[in-house]
Amino acid sequence: xxxxxxxxxxxxxxxxxxxxxxxxxxxxxxxxxxxxxxxxxxxxxxxxxxxxxxxxxxxxxxxxxxxxxxxxxxxxxxxxxxxxxxxxxxxxxxxxxxxxxxxxxxxxxxxxxxxxxxxxxxxxxxxxxxxxxxxxxxxxxxxxxxxxxxxxxxxxxxxxxxxxx
Length: 165
Known about the structure:
The protein is mainly α and 165 residues long. The protein has one domain (11-160). The protein contains two helices and no strands. It has helices at 9-142, 145-164. The chain is rod-shaped, with a radius of gyration of 63 Å.
């Protein structure tokens, strides 16, 4: 081994060992405790926050469980209300259908009456037209010019009597 700056190598190795020991001492006695204290404080803060979060979560869980227990009752109440509403709607629809059926029945009866009256009028009109045609044919067949002249004279005499009298 060759000496460095005139000092034997063992001296440099020993100096190196002392420097490393001082560095370890400084790190272990000065820096490590403050690091560990800071780390301990961080861990304690995290634990405290976790405990608070746990308490908060338990409160929320309790609220949710309470809501869930009431939710069944709310769902049953909603179902009952829906059934009542459906029953009311069903009754209203039935009532409206009955009213519509009565209205349609009334309208059909009135339409039947109108058509019946119209048919009677047409039958009477047809009968009158047939009677007139039949009478015209009978008159044309049995009435002669002398009969017409006599009928016209009697009509004029009757008319003068009424005007004079």
